[in-house]
């Protein structure tokens, strides 16, 4: 092999000929990635916000055997349920609601009805269910509670934050509302709401 000349041995590469790092291109790529992540996050938050605040009726679609069931929602306690289309809900006060079948003018009013009563938890002792969810006898949509069946009706008890909820089927006549009560109870659900709703306390 021919030997390199002295000029070739002593010559050094010109720094100007080195490939420079393209900071402009790298910055654009980083901006693109960050923008993509931001758009994804905003989309996810928007969907969650829509579900929690504007589409609250949809969370109860599977509550009963009929998708056309009506929706009752307590704005004060961030709580809702579905009930049959041929029933009516009467809010006696914010902490007491009565649900019962609608009867015609010539029909005898049903003696059976369902009530939802909300009271402040206060300083009562915790139930076995509250201490250990494995001991709960009722569950629906992340609500754990106790269910009691008596000859006079069925009672579902559960609590949330500062309040106790008692959902009761009152049996006083011949109408059989047990199955309907079961369907309604499976639609019980708390929904995200304002800070006032989350801190509301029954009086």
């Amino acid at each position: 092999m021919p030997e390199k000349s002295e000029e070739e041995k002593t010559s050094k590469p010109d720094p100007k000929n080195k490939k420079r790092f393209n900071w402009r291109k790298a910055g654009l790529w980083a901006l693109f990635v960050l923008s993509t992540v931001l758009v994804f996050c905003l989309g996810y938050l928007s969907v969650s916000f829509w579900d929690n605040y504007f589409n609250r009726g949809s969370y109860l679609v599977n509550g009963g055997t009929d998708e056309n069931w009506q929706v009752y929602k307590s704005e004060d306690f961030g709580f809702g349920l579905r009930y049959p289309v041929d029933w009516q809900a009467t809010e006696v006060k914010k902490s007491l609601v009565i649900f019962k079948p609608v009867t015609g003018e010539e029909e005898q009013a049903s003696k059976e009805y369902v009530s939802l009563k909300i009271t402040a938890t206060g300083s009562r002792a915790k139930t076995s269910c509250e201490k250990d969810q494995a001991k709960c006898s009722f569950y629906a949509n992340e609500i754990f509670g106790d269910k009691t069946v008596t000859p006079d009706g069925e009672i579902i008890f559960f609590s949330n934050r500062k309040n106790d909820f008692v959902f009761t089927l009152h049996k006083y006549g011949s109408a059989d509302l047990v199955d309907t009560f079961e369907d309604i109870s499976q639609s019980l659900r708390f929904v995200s709401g304002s800070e006032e709703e989350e801190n509301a306390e029954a009086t």
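The radius of gyration is 32 Å. DSSP finds five helices and ten strands in the chain.
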